[in-house]
């Protein structure tokens, strides 16, 4: 699945960034080290003109094998260590029976530990696969096109090992046009997944029932208010931007709830639309006032770019914010997915250690009559 059209693995920059101690496959050096040590001991003994007292190094080979190998490979390396220790050809300095028994015991214990580790790793892999399936069910990948609107979303969760955090987006077709949403709920990581699932469920229902984008926002606000009332001191809230495209793609109506509106890419420039952030969702939107709806007429070639604060508030080592508006025109591409990936690459270059959820949504409507 293309990472630019939905969820994607954590950080997506080269090797698995979970780290070896967080579930990623062991690095090459960990797999090679036991064999290299065994070969090194043998080579040193054969090259030396005098017997060397380095047999103790062989006792380290089985425990090292546990780090990266299964029980069969660990047993094989342990057996080879005992053979090298006892065969006179390698001229080790007369190991006693205690040394041999010690290496045998360490090898047997290492095989047991390797068996336990392998079973645990297999269980963790299974549980991770189940968790990924559940998270993808909450925020499924975006289709490449919804009606006249081409779509691409990119998501990188701040919490290592997760695919869903506090940010969300979706694009849906309904009887009143094409609706899109991008938002950020209170909190990060798995603690925010339940709120994200609740909001997206309310959004998908509202797309079918509500004729206006402000009514969709009110439905999301009510959903959060109800969920918050069920949990004492929950104080759930979220920021979001809703976009309502006409059926022919000629006009988009924008509603902002505590979040800035999208950037409009037009004629090689990134234009900040005059969209006033309203009250965040979950804080009594209906009681305060419905948010202002901003209509924007679209032309052929226009693209709308939405980004979370993980993009706009990313800072480099000098504390400078990422200049999204200035960089965006130079990164634009005809393919919405390519634009999101280019911005991500440029963002990582500006701020290598991104600590917040990063979400981007690119929408490329094709107005009626456009070639």
From TrEMBL:
Residues 149-365 form the PPM-type phosphatase domain. The keyword Membrane applies. Keywords: Hydrolase, Membrane, Transmembrane, Transmembrane helix. InterPro entries: Bact_Sigma-Reg, PPM-type-like_dom_sf, PPM-type_phosphatase-like_dom. It comes from the Bacteria. The chain crosses the membrane at residues 54-80, 100-116. The keyword Transmembrane applies. PANTHER family: STAGE II SPORULATION PROTEIN E, STAGE II SPORULATION PROTEIN E-RELATED. This is Membrane protein. It comes from Streptomyces djakartensis. The lineage of its organism: Bacteria, Bacillati, Actinomycetota, Actinomycetes, Kitasatosporales.
């Amino acid at each position: 699945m293309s990472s630019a059209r939905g969820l994607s693995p954590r950080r997506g920059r080269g090797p698995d960034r979970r780290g070896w101690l967080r579930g990623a496959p062991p690095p090459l050096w960990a797999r090679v080290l036991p064999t290299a040590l065994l070969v090194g001991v043998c080579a040193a003994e054969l090259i030396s003109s005098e017997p060397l007292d380095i047999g103790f190094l062989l006792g380290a080979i089985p425990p090292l094998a546990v780090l990266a190998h299964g029980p069969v490979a660990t047993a094989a390396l342990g057996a080879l260590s005992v053979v090298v220790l006892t065969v006179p050809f390698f001229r080790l300095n007369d190991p006693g029976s205690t040394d041999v028994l010690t290496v045998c015991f360490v090898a047997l214990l290492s095989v047991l530990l390797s068996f336990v580790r392998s079973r645990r790793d297999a269980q963790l892999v299974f549980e991770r696969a189940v968790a990924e399936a559940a998270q993808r069910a909450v925020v499924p990948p975006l289709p490449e096109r919804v009606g006249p609107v081409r779509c691409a979303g990119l998501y990188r969760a701040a919490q290592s090992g997760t695919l869903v955090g506090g940010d969300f987006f979706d694009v849906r077709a309904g009887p009143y046009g094409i609706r899109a949403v991008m938002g950020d709920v209170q909190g990060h990581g798995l603690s925010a997944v339940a709120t994200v699932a609740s909001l997206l469920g309310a959004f998908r229902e509202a797309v079918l029932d509500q004729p206006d984008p402000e009514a969709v926002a009110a439905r999301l606000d009510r959903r959060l208010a109800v969920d918050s009332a069920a949990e004492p001191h929950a104080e759930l809230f979220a920021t979001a931007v809703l976009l309502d495209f006409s059926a022919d793609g000629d006009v988009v109506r924008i509603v902002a709830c505590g979040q800035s509106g999208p950037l409009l890419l037009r004629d090689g420039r990134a234009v900040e639309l005059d969209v006033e952030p309203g009250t965040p969702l979950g804080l009594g939107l209906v009681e305060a006032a419905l948010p202002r709806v901003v209509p924007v007429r679209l032309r052929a070639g226009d693209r709308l770019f939405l980004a979370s604060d993980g993009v706009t508030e990313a800072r480099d080592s000098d504390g400078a914010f990422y200049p999204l508006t200035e960089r965006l025109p130079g990164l634009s591409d005809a393919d919405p997915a390519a634009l999101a990936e280019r911005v991500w690459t440029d963002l990582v270059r500006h701020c290598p250690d991104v600590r917040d959820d990063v979400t981007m949504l690119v929408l490329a409507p094709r107005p009626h009559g456009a070639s």
